[in-house]
Amino acid sequence: MPSESFKKSNEVYNKKASAAKSREDAREFTTISGDPLDICYTPQNSPDLNGGGYDDKLGFPGEYPYTRGIHPNLYRGKLWTMRQFAGFGTAKDTNERYHFLLEHGQTGLSVAFDFPTLMGYDSDHARSRGEVGRCGVAISSLADMETLFSGIPLDKVSVSMTINGPAAIVWSFFIAAAEKQGVHPSKLRGTIQNDILKEFQAQHAWLVPIDHALRIVIDTMEFGAKEVQQWNTISISGYHIREAGSTAAQELAFTLANGFEYIERGIARGMNVDEFAPRLSFFWDVHLDFFEEIAKFRAARRIWAKTLKEKYGAKDPRSLLVRTHAQTAGVSLTAQQPENNIVRVAYQALAAVLGGTQSLHTNSMDETLALPTEKSVKIALRTQQVLAYETEVAHVVDPLGGSYFIEAMTDRLEAAANVYFKRIAERGGMVNATKEGWVQREIHRSSTAYQKAVEDGRKTIVGINRFVEEDEKIEIPVLKIDPKVDEISSDNLRKLRERRDAARVKKALDGVRAAAKNGENLMPRFVEAARSYATLGEIADVLRGEFGAPVEPAF
Amino acid sequence: MTSEKIRVLVAKPGLDGHDRGAKVVASALRDRGMEVIYTGLHQTPESIVEAAIQEDVDAVGLSILSGAHMTLFPKIAELLRSRGAENVVLTGGGIIPKEDVESLRTLGFARLFGPGSTTDEIAEYIESEVGRRRAAANH
After folding, report:
1. Which residue of B has its CA nearest to A129?
2. How many domains does chain A have?
3. Is residue B1 in some structural domain?
4. How far is A183 from chain B (nearest CA, A)?
5. A70 or A26, greater pLDDT
6. Rounded mean pLDDT of chain A?
7. Is A455 near chain B, with CB under 8 Å?
8. Which residue of A has its CA nearest to B67?
9. Does B2 map to a domain?
10. Each residue of A474-490: pLDDT tens digit?
11. Complex ipTM value
C-alpha cells in the first residue's frame, strides 16, 4: 500500500496537474469509449499489486489467472499466426489468392464467405442474385470446398472459417474435402466461428431461430470433442459486437457472457467442461484506443480463467485459456485519404501484439471502398512482418504489465464487465437479453453516442472532421469481381446436380431431417450429406423447414 | 408546400447484416423530427417498394454493404417507378465504389452517402429534396 506521505504528494500533484492549462484543440480527455482518464497514473490506482495482489490479479505468463498471457515465453516460443481473412469470387479465384498469400509468408488461412453462403443459400437461389462472390467466396457444396483447397494440404495448414448460421454444414464440407485429400478429421487444425449468439446481437448472418441454432452449436462442440479434437469449434467473437458500435467494455462483457452461455449449455448436454472448453477460442476487435485495447485483452484472460475455474469447476488448465485471434478495426478505416489507414492498422496491430494475441488479421487500406487488392493485402501482411521481425517488441511477454495505467485500465474494464454480467443475469441471461433486443439496443446506444462525438468534433478522425482535403480525388485501384461469378457458380451447381447420385442425396437429406426432429447430434448427418454432394441450400432448407426462420426484435 | 412531417423509409436490401449505419441514420432522422420506418434486415427490392408505397413515404434511404448494390439499387428504382412513386426521393449509402456511384447517378440515385458522411448532411439533403418536390407538386 502506498504510504501516507506518498498519498499526500500524489494529491498535491493531482491539484497542480489539474490546474495546469489544457491545450485548446482538445475538447475532452477520454477513452474512445468515452470514459474519463486521469492525467497520470500512480501506484494509488492499483495499490495492491505489490502485495498479494500480484499473484491474485496477474500471475506469471502461462500461469493462473493468465492476465499476462497464456504461454510462459509467448512469442519467443511461437510468433502469432499471420492470418489474413480472404475470399472472393468463385472457389477457384480464392484458391489462387490463398496460394499467393502462402507464397508471401502467411502462416494460416482464413476464409471469407459471400453472403449467400453465410445465409445458407446456394449460388443459384433467387436471393443470391448480385451477391455471389461479392463479399467473400461462394461455397455451395463439397465440390466448391475441394476446389477452394486444391493444392493446399489440410493436415499442414490451419484454416479458420468465418461462418455462423450454417457453420456446421460448411464445416462438414471441409471435413469431407479433407477426407478426399486422405486427411483424417483428427489431423485437422482450424476454427469455425460458429458463434451464433453474436450473430443475433450484431452481425445477423443466421439460419434458424436462436434456440435451435444453439442446439446445433452444442452438437458441433460435442462432435468436435470426439472426432475433430484439434479443431476450435467456436470462436467466441467480440469483433462484430464492437464493429456494430459497442464500447470496449461492452465488447468484453457481451463476448464473455456469450462464452459462459456456451459453457453452460455444453454442461447441460452432459459433457464435462474440460471435454470441450479447451476447444473454445476467442476473436477480438483491436480498435484505435491503444491502451484500452491492450487492457481489454488482459482483462478477458483474467475474467475467463477465474470464472471457468471458480464457477464452472474447470480443472484442465487449457480450459482456462483465452486463445485469441484479433483483427484490426474495420470501422476505424476511412474512405478519405485511404493511405492513412495503413498507419491506423499498424498502431492497432501493435496493440494486439502487446495484448498477447495468438493470431492476427491486419485490414487493408482500401476496405472501405471494396474488397482489397493484392497490393493492399500485401502491405497489410508486411505490416505484421515489420512488427514481428524489425521492432523487437515480441521478445518480452506482456511488456506493459505493471504499468500503473494499464493495470488500472485492466481493473476498470473487469469491473465494467462485472456490472454488465449482473445486468444480463437480471434479464434472465444472454439468450433472453438477446431475444428482447436489449443487447442490440445497448450496442446501438453506444454507436449513436460515438457518431455524435465525431459530428460534434469531440472525437477526431483525421481526414473526416480534421485535416480534411477538400476536392480530394481518391486514386487507388479497387478490386473488381468478375460479373460472371453468378453465372459460373450457377452453372457449376447445375452440372453438379446432374452428375451426383440423386438417391444418395435424398437419403442423406432424409437423415438430416430425422436428426433435426429426434434431437440426435446433427453433425454425422451433415457430414454424410456433404459426402453425397447435397448442397448448402438443400441442407439448410431442411433445417429451415423443421425450425422456421429467425425473427428480428423491433428496433 | 405543406409542413407535414417528412416520412422516410430506411431499408436494408440484400443479405448483409450490417445495420450500424442504417440504425444510426434512422435515429438521427427521427431526432430531426422525421417519421422514420426501418424495414429490418435482409429485404428484397419487392418488400422495400411495397413498404414505401404502404407507408406513403417521401424518401427511401437504402443501406448496403454486401456489394450487391448494382443489382438491387436499380431494381428498387425501377419498381418504384412502375408503381408510380417516381416522386419519392431515393438515396442510400454503404460500401459503394466511386465508379458505381457514378453509374447509379443515372439510375435514379442523384446522391449517395459513403463512409465519413455526417447524419446532418443526410438529413439536410432529404429535407431539401423533399421540400423541392413538394413545392413542385403544389404548383
Report:
1. B71
2. 1
3. no
4. 34
5. A70
6. 95
7. yes
8. A134
9. no
10. 777 888 888 889 999 99
11. 0.91
